[in-house]
Amino acid sequence: MKYIDKIYGEHEFSGVIEEIIQTNIFQRLKKIHQGGSIFLVNPQINHTRFEHSIGVMLIIKKLGGSIEEQIAGLLHDISHTAFSHLIDYVLDVEGEDYHERRYVDVLKDNELNAVFEKYQLNGTVFIDIEKFKLLEYPLPYLSADRIDYTLRDMFQIGQVSLKEISWFINGLDSLDNRIVLKSKAYGEWFQEKYNFLTTEYFEGEENIEINVIMKKIIKYCLGNGVIQEKDFFEDDFSLIDKINQKYNLMQWIDKIRGGELENNKLTTKKRIVDPEIIVNDQILPLSEVN
């Protein structure tokens, strides 16, 4: 299977990786936007959880991660709901971890487990993804997940180039089973980009506005039986179609945008990074590197 990633280029997949990608549960991620609701008002920001999940796997593979950790990278977002984190805002879920609470149940998918069985893999290995340190490592340090969504989001909003991404990827290394950077320059670059992503994009006016609007619309639709919580287990377009059976979603959004929002505040998860750097065979956080 040939796959062209918009930021990492062309790759060939085969065996268990290819077969997991081809499952219906994974293909569903093509219809779940990484940026949640923002594509409704800014069609340029249209990348998906499908692209991100494969990107995370590719970073893990580049760093020598085991096939199990590569698979964990593919699967880590498989339980995301329609519009990604929108349901966290609607239900006021602290930590934005609604999808993580569903992960174990989604991992029981029959087609997915048939692939595991074919390749003699125990699906329960992937339940605790935090044990895969290249994939998930606590803030403020680096992880394949954190790196890919930063590079991918920043590329999509036009803030980094493919040349910059290639340069940064060459600065990645792994030591003691975690991701480190080869020099201070890589750490400073990534920290700057990550800070921009969180303050100017995640907390930017356009992103906050559409999520506040969609939170208002979804709460109304849930409260009036137009949709149910389980409808979020499908995908963005399925949920839009369900709403459009009774209302015109885009006209509704435009009407709210044309007036005054009662509350244009949205609580988002606070994130900072302090990447670890290799300095004279030692690992130091960027904040401690002279």
From TrEMBL:
Record-level GO BP terms: dGTP catabolic process
Domain HD/PDEase, chain residue ranges per copy: 45-159
SUPFAM superfamilies listed in its UniProt record: HD-domain/PDEase-like
An example molecular function term from Gene Ontology annotations: dGTPase activity
Organism superkingdom: Bacteria
Pfam families linked to this entry: HD (PF01966)
Record-given protein name: HD domain-containing protein
